[in-house]
Amino acid sequence: MAEAAALSAARRRRSLGEALAALSLAGPAVALMVMFLIGPLVVVVLLSLTNYQLGAASLSYVGLGNYSEMFADRVFQRSLQNTLLYVAIVVPTSVGLGLGAALLIEAGTSLRAFYRAVYFLPVMATLIAMAIVWEFMLHPTLGLINLTLREFGIEGYNWLQDRRTALFTLCGIGIWQSVGFNMVLFMAGLTAIPGELYEAAAVDGARTGIDRFRTVTWPMLGPVTLFVVVITAIRSFQVFDTVQVMTKGGPNRATEVLLYTMYSEGFSFFRTGYAAAVTVVFLLFVLALSLLKTWAINRKVHYA
């Protein structure tokens, strides 16, 4: 009996020692996560419940007042609408073009490295610097695009100052930048597909390229496609650089997006509490969209 009690006590001491060791090992990582991830999120949520203004010595609790004001604000409604339209255009187009470019490069036998570098250049370039280049190219009188159109007898547009074209022009630049990144991810997925699967598909009657893509390539790219769609959607929601440099939300708020509204409210009008409320809504949209896409696409993600 005494021997059993001693054995039990020894086990408890060993379990306690293991727990302390695990806590000491995980403690620094948990502390850093709280400090740099969870802590700032909590501060943003708390600020969104106040009327704090940048630089003010005091603040007051306003509850959901900032959220009520925000959802009744036409500027925020327009900003949200523009952001959703931007995501709806950029995500499917850049994913489709990235997949197409990856398939074409992998199908070729020469100049693969050259094509990979050309498509990936926009990803490596600083977007603000490239936005300035795009602004020059889209100039209504001196821009290369309008000059080229005039050579074919087509009258150009004031791409960035026309409400009908401004947002779609920014979408085109967003697609231009995202295609190369998506292409690299799809190429990594293509190189991981075993060649034996294509041989087996050929034995089963998949003779054409379309048959091989439908029966082998597309199913095997399921996990990569899921990752690409989610990452591209999050990056599209974060559009800010091109808006800030090229249009500043204009003309007449035709290109104002959520991040630009957040920046304007926080650093131009110093309404930190209101900007924090916009940030919370922005984070909820990104989180909800990511979870929805993960759930919807994951139902079809499988290996053949």
UniProtKB/TrEMBL annotation:
The chain crosses the membrane at residues 20-49, 84-105, 117-137, 166-188, 216-237, 272-292. It is a multi-pass membrane protein. InterPro entries: ABC_transporter_permease, MetI-like, MetI-like_sf. GO terms for cellular component: plasma membrane. GO terms for biological process: transmembrane transport. Signal peptide: none annotated. Residues 80-293 form the ABC transmembrane type-1 domain. It is found in: Cell membrane. Its main location: membrane. Gene3D superfamilies: MetI-like. Keywords: Cell membrane, Membrane, Transmembrane, Transmembrane helix, Transport. PANTHER family: ABC TRANSPORTER PERMEASE PROTEIN, INNER MEMBRANE ABC TRANSPORTER PERMEASE PROTEIN YCJO. Belongs to the binding-protein-dependent transport system permease family. This is Carbohydrate ABC transporter membrane protein 1 (CUT1 family). It comes from Stella humosa.
